[in-house]
Amino acid sequence: MNILIPGGHRALIERLLGDLRPKLHRYCARMTGSVFDGEDVLQEALAKAFEALPNAGQIANPEGWLFRIAHNTALDFLRRRAREKAFSDEDPDMIVDPANATFDRQAAAAGLHTFMRLPVAQRSSVIMMDVLGYSLQEISAALDTSVPAVKAALHRGRGRLRQLAAEPEDGPVPRLGVSERLLLEAYIDRFNARDFDAVRDMLADEVRLELVARTRFTGPREVATYFHNYSRLRDWRFVPGFVEDRPVVLVHDGNDPAARPAYFILLVWQEGKLAAIRDFRHARYVADSAELLVI
Question: Is this structure's pTM higher than 0.90?
Fold first, then answer.
């Protein structure tokens, strides 16, 4: 997308973000190996974008500009975790077929942890072309590297993905401790029964709520608005589950309980009280990238 946007036109960038946010999250989640970390990186990247906007001048390619910020923010995150290293030099004469349905299927089917086993250069190039469908030139511009380097990273990354796809998945099934299971089940049972007074009794005094991509609340009084809004809706039913080995509330469409969960809610407990709620109702793109497991 090549649109000349004068610096300071925040509303135009905000509209673009409405369309791009799911794509940006798919990229960040695969770069970090986690839908949770991917959302954190995305939020940090968006904050950086809005901070830079007043001094950005003319932005000829806002989509590429945003992806470059997201990419650099993901690299900063990875450096902080000390897991990976930045782009390495590759053979500039490597030839890559940029349009190959087999590669697309392999990349789309690969789990987040699989992508984490690719070096950063290979990972970012494969994600942008085989998952998100960008061209070599667009990837080169967004990642601030050369087209030959992107080709080389694609060649090696795709080869490594083929090797990883042949390996058996033998990870342990996640389990909940007794106390955490009782707390999670009590919260879900009370919510499904629409007994929101009982749900509020579970809150810590300093409870924090994040409606991802929408707003934040602090304290039982503000969070009460959140429960009131749920009480007016009929499109949900809660079940316990896991996302990335973390216990969550999986949310089904109340009218179609057999369908894949539409989104999920992460709960954090401290000393038997609910200290934090992170609800992805307004960021359902996160569930699209997540590996969901019903308990």
Answer: no
